[in-house]
Amino acid sequence: MKKDLLRKTQAFASAPGSPLTEQIKGFCYLILCPAIIFICMEWYLRNPFMEKWGIKAVLFIVNLLIFYILEFLFYAITGSLRASLYILSVLSFIFGITEHYVYSFRGSTLVPWDFLSLKTALSVSDNYEFKPDKTTVILTLIFILMWISLIFCNISIKNKKKLRLTTGILSFLMLFLVLFPFVQSENTIKTLKVYDKLFTPATMTMRDGMFFSFVYNMQFLNVKKPGGYNSDSIRSSLFTDYGGEEGVKIQSGNELPNIIVIVCEAFSDPAVLGDFNVNTDYMPFIRSLINDGSTVSGTLNVSVIGGNTPNTEYEFLTGNTMAFLPAGSVPFLQFVKHKTDALPSYLKDLGYRTVAMHPYGAKGWDRNRVYPLLGFEKMYFSDSFLNSSPEYIRKYISDRTLFNKITELYKENVKETPLFSYNVTMQNHSDYTQDFDNFTPDIEIEGVKGIRPAERYLSLEKITDQAFKEFISYFDSISDPTLVVFFGDHQPADSVVEPIWNLNNKKGSELKEDDLRKRYKVPFLIWANYPLDGASDLELSTNYLGNLVLKSAGIDIAGYRAFLNEQYKEAPVITSVYTSFSDGRRNSADIDDEALQNYRRMQYYEMFDDTDTLE
After folding, report:
1. What integer pLDDT is reported at residue 406 of this predicted model?
2. Which of 218, 235, 269 is the last residue before a domain boundary?
3. What is the pLDDT of residues 131-158, one digit of tens each?
4. Which helix (H) or strand (E) holds 86?
5. 210 plus 352 within the same structural domain
6. 185 burial class (0-12, 13-18, 19+ CB within 10 angstroms)?
7. Where a domain ends, among 198, 218, 238?
8. Total domain count, the chain
9. Euclidean distance between CA atoms 107 and 101, whole angstroms
10. Is 200 left (phi over 0), alpha (psi -120 to 50) or beta?
11. Which residue from 377, 369, 376, 375 is spatially nearest to 337, judged by alpha carbons?
């Protein structure tokens, strides 16, 4: 019966009408459908006509033009307008709804590099709640109704090979030789006054349109060679001005300490965003260490929010900054293709045993491939914890379990060989909207009703704080000199901290520049079981933290790392979002300062031309 109904529907849809009627129907499908598809796709992210985030008329036309060219390209390939519109609408539906959820989960939108991390995204997708809102449901229904209506679109050019070939060639040339270069042209950006701030991809996408911003970003898949760059000159400078390329060396008479680094997932202190009261402190022990005059501590300025942990890792391990790389890029996926100078490789040359641990999948962000290229000899991922009855909090292996594993490795380590243990936690990873039997939030924010993501997030941090106290207590009791570094990789997404803004009469969509910068600040501390030259209230960016760790460990530096020390004196904060100079000046990530251009050239050399580490 269903087959008969389908056959009758298709017969009715293909029944010929008057030539004029068929022409009008074909014209309507040809012109109206791409416009409807485009508007619905954009609406998944936000209302494209709203005053604040709406697309300017000229950019609306450019985006729509891309849709029409794609329509004709698919039309030429398939020979059927119906098939062309099915392909265009399905791809747009997938793109639009993906943008919606990506923005909801991490506060950023899609960029070309996200497709390089597709495996990582899929591996953690079951940890998020894909609950559609009213707008998403309505838009999806519109797409479904459109797909049903396409049954009545029976226009084709299947038997007109020359016309199809001509249409296909012209569409292809228009798309890739005319429209794409037009979108990526600096003249276009200036003439049309396009929003081109790469460090805020969400704003760019909302103001310029999904396809326009995506195509514009495609030109940054590769890092352009900086102006005035000369590899021989850089190499000569490293040797002449900074004592060679070897990176680090032992200070005479010093015993090398064990170095334990903990990159704590999503750990931050939301108090930096505004005042709020809680029923109990969520990080009492870590706060006590930060306020202890015997530790080195302060504020770390990172380059990411709500995700992209490996970018913080990359900055810390290499000393390179995301400020000189395309916005939204992930160096682990794009640029670490060969052996690279980094903390583990330096320390391995000094005799350290270099170990990396992350209690999650080995293939996430390509860590199992990248870590050895950075100098790690041994790696432990989630499967390494399974035989030890790990504790789970929500769906993740707990920080306490990871800390205990670090302790076990230390006990197994040969005493004459110092240990460099680098660890990325997983316990506090988003999403913070779901309830679990093995996790009961106990932090309450005054003035906030019910258990919301903010309370769950802070409650998780409290569990980390307690576990870290036990961890430090153990290493405080041993005689081997040991240095422990602790810092957060990024703050959580906007949806988590929104109540704190609201309590301070602010809205996340209307933040001023200073408030936006606060979103990139996380605490850091360096503790040791031997006397340190304590310092508090330091402010620096992640690319300099590795040097501070080496200094605290009593290890001298040379070459690129010596250059970084000089750079720190001039600009102590350089992130993908902003730069703060020592003389009080501030700048965006679009840096013109000549001293920083020299840093850009040095970094390019380290990333692509430093052949001393190549096999």
Report:
1. 96
2. 218
3. 888 999 999 999 999 999 988 887 766 6
4. helix 81-106
5. no
6. middle
7. 218
8. 2
9. 9
10. beta
11. 369
d(CA 125, CA 93): 19
Structure tokens at 350: 């000094």
| Pair (202, 283) in one structural domain | no
- Tokens describing residue 242: 């900074």
512 dihedral zone (left: phi>0; alpha: psi -120 to 50; beta):
beta
Residue 22 covered by a domain: yes
Q: How many separate helices (H) and strands (E) can be counted in the chain? A: 24, 15
Q: Where do we find the tokens 């997708």?
A: 125
The residue type of 82 is R
Q: Which are the contacts of 311, defined by CB distance < 8 A and separation ≥ 6?
A: 302, 303, 304, 322, 330, 331, 576
The answer to whether position 174 is within a domain reads yes
pTM of the predicted model as reported, rounded to 2 decimal places: 0.73
> 216-220, 324-328, 395-399, 530-534: which has the highest mean pLDDT?
395-399
Tens digits of residue pLDDT in 561-577: 999 999 999 899 999 88
Domain that holds residue 375: 256-613
C-alpha–C-alpha distance, residues 454 and 461, integer Å: 11
β pairing state of 482-488 and 521-528: antiparallel
Determine, yes or no, domain membership for 227. Answer: no
- Output the CA angle 7-12-15, nearest 5 degrees: 120
180 and 262 both lie in a single domain? no
